[in-house]
Design goal:
The strands form three sheets. A five-stranded antiparallel beta sheet has the order 6-5-8-9-11, with no helix packed on it. The chain has a four-stranded mixed beta sheet with strand order 2-7-4-10, with no helix packed on it. By secondary structure, it is mostly beta strands. It is built from no helices and eleven strands.
Length: 169
C-alpha cells in the first residue's frame, strides 16, 4: 500500500501533521494510523494531544500538535501516527485530548490494533471531556478527577459524590 505523506517532519515521536506540508513524499509498507479528527467547534480547541498505551508501556511518545498552538479548523484536523513494526497486530489504547489554552476540553479513547505494513484509517469525533476526566477540580474540593472521592470512573459527569460535605448538602 502506498501513502502520500507531507514532509513537515517525521518528528521523533512519529506524528505527522498533514496540513503543514510543503513537499510530497511517497512511502509504502508503513504501519500506523491515518486519523481524521473532528470536534465541537464551540470548545475553542487549539491543540490535540495524542498518546498510545498498552498497560504501562507507551506505544509511541505522546505529543501535542500543532506546536505552537493555533485555533483548530472548523472542518477538523488530520494526523498520521507511525508505529514501530513491533506494535503491529497488538492491541493498545489510542487517546486524543482536545486542548483549549492547555486545558483538556474534549477527549476520546479506544482500543485499536493496526495491521502490519498498513495505515489504518480512522475518523474520530471528540466529545466534551466529562468532569472526572478533564484535569480540573470541578467541585473545588482540592482533588482532581479520579483522585476526587466523587468520581466513580473517567466517564462520571460530576465530581460531586454522596458523602457528607461533597454532596452539596
Amino acid at each position: 500500500m502506498s501513502r502520500l505523506l507531507t514532509s513537515c517532519g517525521l518528528i521523533a515521536w512519529a506524528l505527522l501533521w498533514t496540513s503543514c506540508g510543503k513537499q510530497t513524499v511517497v512511502m509504502s509498507g508503513l504501519t500506523g494510523i491515518d486519523l481524521a479528527v473532528t470536534y465541537p467547534v464551540d470548545l475553542g480547541l487549539n491543540q490535540l494531544r495524542f498518546s498510545g498505551r498498552q498497560a504501562d508501556t507507551e506505544v509511541f511518545t505522546p505529543g501535542t500538535l500543532p506546536n505552537p498552538a493555533r485555533p483548530l479548523t472548523d472542518k477538523g484536523e488530520s494526523v498520521v501516527i507511525l508505529l514501530d513494526e513491533e506494535w503491529a497486530e497488538q492491541s493498545f489504547v489510542l487517546r486524543i485530548d482536545g486542548l483549549a489554552q492547555g486545558l483538556k476540553t474534549a477527549t476520546k479513547s479506544q482500543t485499536v490494533s493496526i495491521p502490519a505494513g498498513e495505515l489504518l484509517r480512522l475518523s474520530w469525533r471528540l466529545d466534551p471531556a466529562p468532569a472526572c476526566d478533564n484535569d480540573r477540580d470541578d467541585d473545588e474540593d482540592g482533588k482532581t478527577d479520579l483522585e476526587d472521592p466523587g468520581c466513580d470512573d473517567v466517564h462520571d459527569q460530576s465530581e460531586k459524590g454522596n458523602i457528607q460535605c461533597d454532596n452539596g448538602i
